[in-house]
Amino acid sequence: MNLEFQSGPYIERLRNMGLNNINNVKLLYKNRWLSVLLIVLGVVIFTSCKISYSFSGASISPEAKTVSISYFQNRAPIVQPGLSQYVTDALVDKCKGQTSLDFVNGNGDVNFEGEITGYNTQPRAVAADARAASNRFTITVKVKFTNAIEPEYSFEQTFSGYEDYDSSLNLSDVENELSDTIIEKIIEDIFNAAFVNW
């Protein structure tokens, strides 16, 4: 056996490669611990965050578990039968569909109450012959939102929505369709004011 060959440059190279592999293992071991540390830190940060997010865009405190929605009385000068129930049901459906809050009678962690204060139509634009070319149909709802968990998000606010329609039509011809569209917008605005806090 040639001892000179064993102690030559090839053996030295093999020794250096062995040291490099050990250094690589040490570096890999350190990186693994760093990765684990970052994952644990990320989990802690996200689970300790006060606000929880949903696909609807709603940000509701994880401490809030219940909601109550009082019947919206119709106090508008023109009282449309069934409108109170329709507005109340629309808000209930929105909260059921977009949150995981449980409904309760009485006071919940968050509460909605309010009334319909406006339901009217008026001329919008005047044509060349001094007649109205279009009318504007408006519904107004006053809402008091109470957040017992985060009182800074409580509010009392008026929400209004409208749709224009051709003046050659009677309101009764388009009332149901326009009401649906307006109330959908108002309910969206109420929901966003209550739960989309960013």
List the helices and strands and how they pair.
Blueprint: H1 3-6, H2 9-48, E1 52-53, E2 59-60, E3 66-69, E4 73-74, H3 83-98, E5 102-103, E6 110-126, E7 132-147, E8 155-166, H4 171-195
Parallel strand pairs: 3-5, 3-6, 4-6
Antiparallel strand pairs: 1-2, 6-7, 7-8
Helix pairs in contact: 3-4
What does the model show?
- This protein has four helices and eight strands, in the order ααββββαββββα.
- It is of the alpha/beta class and 198 residues long.
- The chain has two domains: 3-48; 64-195, Lipoprotein like domain (Double Stranded RNA Binding Domain, 2-Layer Sandwich).
- Strands 3, 4, 5, 6, 7 and 8 form a six-stranded mixed beta sheet that branches.
- α3 (83-98) runs parallel beside α4 (171-195).
- Residues 46-56 have low confidence and may be disordered.
